[in-house]
Every structure is written in C-alpha cells, then in structure tokens.
Amino acid sequence: MAANSSGTAPVSALANAQRTALTAALIAMSASLTVLARSSVARQPVAPPLRMLWAWERPEDLRFVDPRTTGIAYLAATIKVKNDRISCLNRHQPLRVPDGAYLMAVVRIESDGNLTETNQAALDTIIMAVPHLLRPNLRGVQIDFDARKSERGWYKNFLIKLRETLPADLFLSMTSLASWCLGDDWITSSQLPTDEVVPMFFDMGADTRPIGSFLDSGNTFGHTFKSIGISDKDTAINRLIGKSVAGILKPIPRVYMFSRTPWSQARVQNLMQEVNGWK
User: Fold this and answer.
1) Which of 4, 90, 96, 175 to pair with 109, CA 20 to 30 A apart?
2) What is the pLDDT of residue 246?
3) What pTM was computed for the model?
4) Hey, which of 42-51, 115-124, 250-259 has the most confident mean pLDDT?
5) How far apart are CA 277 and CA 271, in angstroms?
6) Looking at the DSSP assignment, which residues form a beta bridge with residue 132?
7) SS3 label, residue 68
C-alpha cells in the first residue's frame, strides 16, 4: 500500500507488525509456561492413615472403625496367571465401611512363574483389567504379588505402566515379602514408581526364624520403612518389631494389620493398643 502525504501508513504498518510479533511471542511464551506448569505440578495423592486394616475375601462389617484414624485396604480381586491363561476373580463377599473411610483396593496377582520380562501380553491384559476393579471413591490401589526372582523385571514394568495408567492423585502401594527388604536390595535398587512398599512380617514360612533373629539383634541392613504389615496372630514377631521399632521404622510408621478371620471391634482395639505401645 502506498504512503499518504502525512506518512501515517508506514508508522501504522510498523505498529501492526510489532503488535503481531508481540502477540506471537506472548502466545509462544504462554505455551511454554503451560508446558512448564504441567511438568512441574507434582502428583498429590492422598496418603493413607497411619493405621490400615486389610479386609480379605470374607464378609466384613467395619462400621465401628474410626475413619479419622484408620483406613481399609480391601481385597478387590485376585488375578491368576496359569499356562498363559489369565482369570480374574472379583470380590464377592460384602464389605461394610463407615462413611468417609479411606478405601484402598488391593489387587492380588498369582502366577505359575511365567510372568517373565518378555510376557508383554500378560502385562497389557492385566493393566487393562485393573481400572475396571476400582470404585469411584477410592483413594489408593495396592498390588500384592509375591514375584519370583525371574518375574521381577516383569513386575517393575507392570508397576511403571500401572502408574502411567492410574489417575495421578491415586496413591499406589505395593506389598513385599519381608525378605525383599532385609538383605535383598531389589526394592531399593529398582526405583519402583510406588508411593510406598509394605513388607509383610507374617506368614513368612522358612524366613520366619532368620528374620526373627535379624529383628531381635536389630540387624535390618540399614533399611527403614515408612510402612509395614503385621498380623494379629504373629504375636512373637510383633513383639520383636516393637523391640526394634526405633531401628526399622521411620518416626511415624504406617501399619497395615491383617487377620485370618473377620475383624471384630475387640480384636482391632487389642492390636491397635499393641502397636501404639511400640516405642
């Protein structure tokens, strides 16, 4: 366009060009800040209370539980892998809980040893199944899988993929054999994408005596735990944990409690009293 006699057209064109460049720069900056904000926003899952009751596959009425102090980790399903066939047994037993209780779905995996790192088909199938097992009011998911050494690579890949699949604000927990955290460093060296690891100090089979000796001597191989699992029946081990609590537990431990029979208010109170007495 030709300039008029006052010369305003070139000035206007320059201003328009400047505004266009500035707008483009602001858009680019906004996009960059948006990406930065998204990448810098940390996951904010709601951590469980310091006391958690495991509710296994049986009728459970836990309405007596105080939801301000105690949560419930209930068995939602058992996934079985055998001869490359995968079956899922959903919970069938009723579970009654108080309003406002912290609920965590436990998904147990049982395999015949074939969940090796190359078994991508099983990983994809189980990953697809897990979201269908979750209730709308859940705050956490716990995976319970006693993986063999040959299955550890698969398990790590599974946890990584599961973390990517689950909502970011959902707390991800995993149980572990006690031996995995005492003298076996695969948990700490693997950098697993879980919010906690819960070593189970019960039903340890042949490991009961050596782990009891470790606890009695205070030998925990330098490990400290944010969470542990105990049983209402393994009182000897519980006493040793109480004795060694300063050595193996962080200042505010989370304790998951298991019972082989339906919980009663008296049984819960007795076990709570025992745990609260640990010094």
Assistant:
1) 96
2) 57
3) 0.82
4) 115-124
5) 10
6) none
7) coil
Distance of CA 74 to the CA centre of its chain: 13
Question: Do the Cβ atoms of 74 and 53 come closer than 8 Å?
Answer: no
* pLDDT of 163 above 70: yes
Contact 165, 134 (CB under 8 A): no
Which of 150, 245, 144, 156 has its CA nearest to residue 192? 156
Q: Which amino acid is at 170?
A: L
**C-beta of residue 214 within 8 angstroms of C-beta of residue 222:** no
Q: How confident is the model at residue 211 (pLDDT cuts 50, 70, 90)?
A: confident
In contact, 99 and 67? CB cutoff 8 Å: yes
Check: CB of residue 78 under 8 Å from CB of residue 110: yes
Rounded-to-integer distance, Cα 93 and Cα 75, Å: 10
Say if residues 228 and 250 touch (Cβ distance below 8 Å): no
Residue 190 pLDDT class (50, 70, 90 cuts):
confident
Question: Of residues 222 and 27, which shows the higher confidence score?
Answer: 222
Is the sign of the CA dihedral 67, 68, 70, 75 positive or negative?
positive
d(CA 267, CA 260): 12
DSSP designation for 75: E
8: three-class secondary structure by DSSP: helix
